[in-house]
Structure formats: structure tokens, C-alpha cells
Amino acid sequence: MQKYTYDVAIVGGGMVGSALACALAESDLKVALVEPHAPSVFDPETPCGLRVSAISYASENILKALGVWEGIISRRACPYRRMLVWEKGQSVETNFSSSSLGLPHLGHIVENAIVQLVLHERMSTLDQVTMYCPAKSETVDFMAQKITLNTGESFSAKLIVAADGAHSRLREMAGIPLTQRTYNQHALVATVETALPQQDITWQCYAPTGPQAFLPLPGHQGSLVWYASPAQVQTYHQMPELKLKDEIQGTFPERLGEITGIFSKGRFPLIRRHAQTYVRPGFVLLGDAAHTIHPQIGQGVNMGFLDMAALAETILQAHAQGEDFSRARVLKRFERWRRWDNTLMIGITDQLYSIFRSQSRLAQSIRNTSFALADRTPPLNKLFASFAVGKMPHLPRVTRKL
Ligand SMILES: Cc1cc2nc3c(=O)[nH]c(=O)nc-3n(C[C@H](O)[C@H](O)[C@H](O)COP(=O)(O)OP(=O)(O)OC[C@H]3O[C@@H](n4cnc5c(N)ncnc54)[C@H](O)[C@@H]3O)c2cc1C
Known about the structure:
35% helix; eight-stranded mixed β-sheet; globular
């Protein structure tokens, strides 16, 4: 039998890859993790970072099970209990609330860098995990299951997991094709300072140019995500701060209060990608390496965490039963478990993109009726709220407190 240096090697120590390393460490498996960038030390005095995510209740349960949730919220996070959605220029609003589900909140807005930092801190305490950080995987020999790093080191692993993000080099090296769609929209993201302290609510306005979202951050801060045509986003991005502040001010409702400053801003192209297979013998794609979606419903990393929990459960169960977890037939169980849910989420996001772009009377009347129904029909309202917190059938074991 072939001898490997590690049982599992994870390439990419972002939020999803790092979470997998922590999850596998509850067994006797030897795990390696490769990541080029060590997360920065947290400084509570600096403004919130640009990249933030709405972490669902389901993901919170996963992070609790990994023993990192306290470390995250003790650094910086903002819970939200309500979501307000409306169409620009229309009077109908839809409110979603955690109280309809009997939950304390719907989720938290958290800086990606904090989630990654706390997971890296946790990994560094786990004997079964060897971290190669900073280091980058340069080449992979799939016959020998061998990874060579830019540091000159190399090692082999029974299972290689590509968690190296949307532009996954490993996916490319493995020759796994993508189904993809480039949206005619980019996102302008900005961390802003606000006159009013943040409330426990996320705001999402559907404008003809694209959705405009405002997410609460701790204290007098907020995260703005503004979707518009690539040219418009470029214009906003290049605007002097005072002018951009006025643009933002004029776009969001007055009750949000004054925007007093812009700490940071960035822009992102939006591409939906879905790998045509997640697995090969001895190889798995995870998180953004397997799929990226339009971020308007804030589900990308939540899907990644659910994939991670399902993969960890599949591997640990097979290992406990003496099965070779790197075999395609075991890995296919993970793919069958997650592909349908991911396809559904991608489909819903695509439909929302199309319905809200159309200015036809029919589309407008569908939108108005849907907003009114979702607001005034309690079972429907509860269904959408459940969806937002990540409550779905066949969830991995660690999320089942929902
Ligand atoms: C504007 C915007 C807003 C978003 N908002 C939300 C939201 O509210 N909620 C939500 O759930 N999702 C959101 N997302 C999606 C979310 O950010 C991603 O799904 C998530 O970051 C993916 O995590 P990941 O760990 O899979 O990949 P990444 O975060 O991309 O991590 C990949 C890691 O791999 C490393 N890497 C790359 N190449 C190599 C290599 N050769 N060797 C070793 N390591 C390598 C990288 O350094 C990186 O750390 C948003 C996305 C965008 C663009």
C-alpha cells in the first residue's frame, strides 16, 4: 500500500479550507494546510475591513462546533435580527424577522479576515494539523498525489482538497471544466462611517440598475454593497470621496442616517461559476473553487461552510468504518449531498437577477405581488426567513440545532 505524508492536504487557508482543517482534526487524521497569506493581527482600533460576509445561523452553528465562534464575536461582529427588502420607488416593503422563527437573530455580519484569523489561531493549537503558511502550492502531481510548494518543500497526501478560491489553480490543473455566466453587473463595496449607531437590520433596495444593500457593522460603521453596470461601478469607484458620499446618501433611505465618511472601497466583477464535477479519485473541490454566485443574497461562504461540513462528515464517517475516504465512490456521496442544494441556490440567485433587471409591466407586477405576499403571508414570510438562516433539508449534523 502506498505511504503518504498526510491523510488530507488542503490547498487554500481562506475561511472554508481552514474550517475543514479544524473539522478533520477531531479525528486521528494527519492534515496539511497550505496558505500564502498569514492573517493580520486584529486591532480593535482600526475600522472594519472591506470584505465582510453575512454569516447565517447555520454557519454560526458550524463555527460553534469548531470551537471558534466565541473568538469571532469577541473580536468584532454585528448581529442582525431583521431584513428589510423593497423595490425602489414602490411603497411595498417586505420585513423578515428572527422572531418569526423563534431565533435570537438571523445571522451576523462578520469581517472575513476575522473569521480566517480565528480559524488559523485554532489550527495552530491542533497537533494533527501542519500549517504551511506563508506558502503556495506550485505544482500538483495527481498520479503520485504530490504537492510541491514555492518554498521548495513537497509532500504527498491521500486526499487533496482544493479550497483555493474562485480562480482555483488546482481546479485548472485537474482539468475540471466550469459552467459559468458573467453578469452585466459589478459590485462596489465600501466600509462607511455613519452618524447613527447601527441597528440590527440589513437593508436591500432593488433599483433598476441593480440591488443596493447596506449591512450593519459594530458601532458607527456599515458596509455598503452597490450593484450596477461595470461602467457605473467604475465611475463610483473613481469618484472623489465627498461626491461618492453624496451619491450614497441620496440612494439609501433617510432613516439610515448620514454617511459621515468612507474608510475603504473596492469593486468586484460578478461571475457565476459551477464546476462540472466536485470530485475525482483523491481530489475534491471545496467552497469558491467549486462554485461562486452573485452575492446579492449573501450565500457564497455559507454554501462553502455547508459543503465543508458535509465533506468532513463524509470523510470522518468513512474513516471510522475503515473505508478509504479518497475513493471516488465515497467522495461522490459528498457531491450528491451538496450539488443539488448548490444548484438550487445558484438557480434562485439567477432568477432574482433576471426578475429585478426586467422593466416590463409583467415583471413589475410579479415583483409587487411577491413583495406584498412575502410580507403579509406569515407561512411564506417564515419560509423565506428560514431559507436566509440556512434551514434546509439534509443539513450536515453540526448544523442541526436549527
Ligand atoms: C462583494 C462580495 C460580497 C460577498 N458577500 C457575502 C456574504 O454576505 N455572505 C456570504 O456567504 N458570502 C459572501 N460572498 C462570497 C464569499 O466572500 C466567498 O464565498 C468566500 O470568501 C469564499 O471562501 P473560500 O475560502 O472558498 O475562498 P477564498 O476566500 O477565495 O480563499 C481561498 C484561499 O486560497 C488561497 N490560495 C489561492 N491560491 C493558492 C495556492 N496556489 N496555494 C495555496 N493557497 C492558495 C488564497 O490565498 C485564499 O486565502 C461575497 C462575495 C463578494 C465578491
